[in-house]
Amino acid sequence: MILRKGIVLVITLLWVFQSDAFSYEIPKSELDIRNNTTPRPASPIELFNLIDPVEKTDVTDEPAGKKISGSDKKSTAGDSIAVLKLLNAAQPIAHSDYKKAFKLTTEAMQIAEATKDKELIGRAQNTMGNLYWFSGDYTHASEYYIDALKNFQKTKNKAQIAECYRNIGWIYLGQKKYELSEDYLLKSLNLNIKIDNKKRIIINYDDLANLYLTSEQYEKGLKACEKSIALAKKYRFPDAIGTIHITTGLLNYELKRLSEAEKEYNDGIGILVKVPNESYNLCLGYLGLGKVKNDQGKLSEALPLFEKVIALGKDHNFPPELAEGYYLASRIYRAQNNPGKAYDYMELYAETNDSVNARNNRDYIQEMAAKLEYEQNKLQIKSLEQEQKLSDARLDRERNFKIFLIVIIFFLFLFGFFIYRSFLRKKKDNQLIAKAYQEIESKNKDISDSIEYALQIQQARLPQVETIQQSFPEFFVMYLPRDIVSGDFYWFTETDSGKKIFAVSDCTGHGIPGAFMSMMGIDGLNYAILEKRIESSSQILNHVNKFIIESLKQDLETVKNKDGMDTAICIFEKDLSSVKYAGANRPLWLIRNKELIQYAPDKMSIGGNNYSDFEFNEITIPLQKGDSIYLFSDGYPDQFGGERNKKFMTKNLKQLLLEITHLSAREQEAILQTSLQNWKGSFPQIDDIILVGIKL
Q1: N or C of the chain: less Cβ packing under 10 Å?
Q2: Which of 480, 482, 505, 526 minimizes the C-alpha distance to 672?
């Protein structure tokens, strides 16, 4: 076996050694690893559709009817149509479904490369570069743009060469190399003027306007916008007109010309709302107009504009604009004395802003540009010099062939020795792995046994369903831990005065951490109700909140623990004529006469904060015979499933309860179990689930 492998190795190496063709590949940067959270480059505006439509005609230097020479296989009409259809399908969804766009472009690239048609390969490379550019991955974008440029230079396609110049200009703009960016953008403009490519000329002028906006050359930017919009109106390109109005608004805003900026933004928005696939520019228009209104002190007019920015940012994945929308809206809510909304939006701003991280690949771009110049210089070397180098290489290989063969034989024997030693080492490693596996199995059994015992302890702390049914005959509880033990729990007692107290809680986490918190929650309720004899639902929550904060030392600045629980608690009168409800982030639903009434909780958790003096509110609810009351954690509505793997959602749970509320408690529980299982299907349970129903 070793000898056979050695012979195959020798033959392979000899074939490679005598081969005349050597390939060259641009090295990848080890630090450049693309991820989904990479932000877009710091470009001031997305121009029309950033990923431009694939054009169906080429403009080349070749006379009509002249074929391009070369040995490359030409694509069939079917291949060309397939590639163009895939690229055209990928471009409109670059914002909304980046992964699908990337998949379609990759498939187009594979078909194009199989045909060896440089035109098709160049188009696919350009589109792939656009996708990487928009995700903020400059390194991969520049590689694809440079490769596309080399292919189009070989086919002499001037329109596509101009587009590659433009793309490289945007790379330098993202790297803040403004002189190089201007140089490449002007190259693209001049070439498009030469071939009379009208729409691309408009785009080139707007590119320059964006460059001057970013480099703070605002007056030059306005002049570029004037040229661009004049051409756009002349040739009737509405998407271009709307986009240029937005660019002009940005420039005027930077020059503090608020009235001019307001007019430009309004004109641009009025056009773009009617044009499909312009969500990003429309988002920028709303954002810019909102800033103008904000600067003018018209906060009530600015706030709806920022809300539109937030909606578009969330729907189409624009993290920088979404973060700015949250921030500016939060400040207005604060000025309008709405601290709750201001706090929520500031938290969302912080979360969104953390995901916006810029990439910096300046040195690598310089290296790629140098490689481009080197490749272009190599194409100018005379054919005679190339043949001479190949001839010298052949002589060198022939001269060293015998020495190479002797070295290979030596390494063949050395290879056999290492194979045998590797076999012995692998055998020993397998023995160690088997022993380690047995140890892991033993430890895993010990852990499983411990968790099972913890389950018995937790179940012993929960009230018996039969005990609750003595007070509420039509009662059910749907209790489904995600793991063996749960962070959700329910609690019940009947006081000496005949009042019935019931609570449902959702603790931070699940599994063992959640179970520990549930034990603390049960202890807090026992302390407040059984020891302190408190019979006010709001006062019970106040005492449990203080108990959790003090037990976990969350009132100390040095303690970073934020664990707590969301709780709903009900105190029923002895004759069930009314119920007193208080909630910490968990609502109470009452269904009466086929109508669902929701009682909202206080927006505050039990524990997980340092607000030990927070006062929860109590709501007294009159009851009637036939009423149904439901308390639950967020596990059921948040469960993923269905055909599109989406959440079940609260509105669907409401509709389901309205449909089954007339049934007995046992039948309701069975339907809820079946509905959850059908929705979840093969998807895993993501959280602990508890849902309690009481029918009077």
Answers
A1: N
A2: 480
- In eight-state DSSP terms, residue 41 is P
Using DSSP's 3-state secondary structure scheme, residue 594 falls into coil
279/103 Cα distance (integer angstroms): 22
400: its two tokens: 């060293």
CA 591 to chain CA mean position, Å = 38
- In this structure, is the dihedral angle defined by the CA atoms of residues 255, 260, 266 and 268, taken in order, positive or negative? negative
Query: Could you read off the pLDDT of 193-204 as tens digits, one per residue?
Result: 999 998 899 999
Tokens linked to 31? 């630090």
Give the span between the Cα atoms of 495 and 238, in whole angstroms.
73
CB atoms within 10 A of CB 404: 14
Per-position DSSP letters for 52-104, written without gaps between them: PPPPS---BSSPTTPPPPSSPPPPPHHHHHHHHHHHHHHGGGTTT-HHHHHHH
Kindly report the number of other CB atoms within 10 A of residue 202's CB atom: 27
Calpha distance 306→291 (Å, rounded): 9
The single-letter code of the amino acid at 597 is I
Dihedral, 241, 247, 249, 253 alpha carbons, nearest 10: -170
* CB-based contact 621:581 (threshold 8 Å): yes
What phi and psi values does residue 516 have, to the nearest 5 degrees? Answer: -60, -45
Per-residue model confidence as pLDDT tens digits over 554-580 = 878 777 778 899 999 999 999 999 999
- DSSP secondary structure string, 655-680? HHHHHHTTS-HHHHHHHHHHHHHHHH
Nearest CA to 600 out of 579, 573, 619, 578 is that of 619
Phi (first) and psi of residue 5, to 5 degrees: -60, -40
Instruction: Tell me how far apart the alpha carbons of residues 321 and 403 are, in angstroms, rounded to a whole number.
Output: 65
* 483, containing H or E segment: none
671 and 660 in contact (C-beta within 8 Å)?
Answer: yes
Secondary element (H or E) of residue 343: helix 339-354
Work out the pLDDT band at 10, boundaries 50, 70, 90. very low
Give Cβ neighbours of residue 314 (< 8 Å, ≥ 6 apart): 322
Please give the angle made by the CA atoms of 307, 311 and 315, to the nearest 5 degrees: 170
SS3 230: helix
Neighbours of 597 (CB within 10 A): 11
Q: Tell me the Ramachandran region of residue 645: left when phi exceeds 0, alpha when psi lies from -120 to 50, beta otherwise.
A: left
Q: What is the pLDDT of residues 32-63, one digit of tens each?
A: 333 333 333 333 333 333 334 444 434 333 33
Confidence of residue 138 (pLDDT cuts 50, 70, 90): confident
Supply angle C-alpha 435, 438, 444, rounded to 5.
140
Sequence-ordered list of residues with C-beta below 8 angstroms from that of 341, at least 6 positions apart, any chain? 330, 333
The per-residue pLDDT for 192 is 93
Structure tokens at 599: 């009682």
In sequence order, what are the residues at sequence separation of 6 or more whose Cβ sits closer than 8 angstroms to the Cβ of residue 648?
636, 637, 638, 639, 641, 642, 676, 679
Using an 8 Å Cβ cutoff, are 525 and 540 in contact? yes
3-state DSSP assignment of residue 516: helix
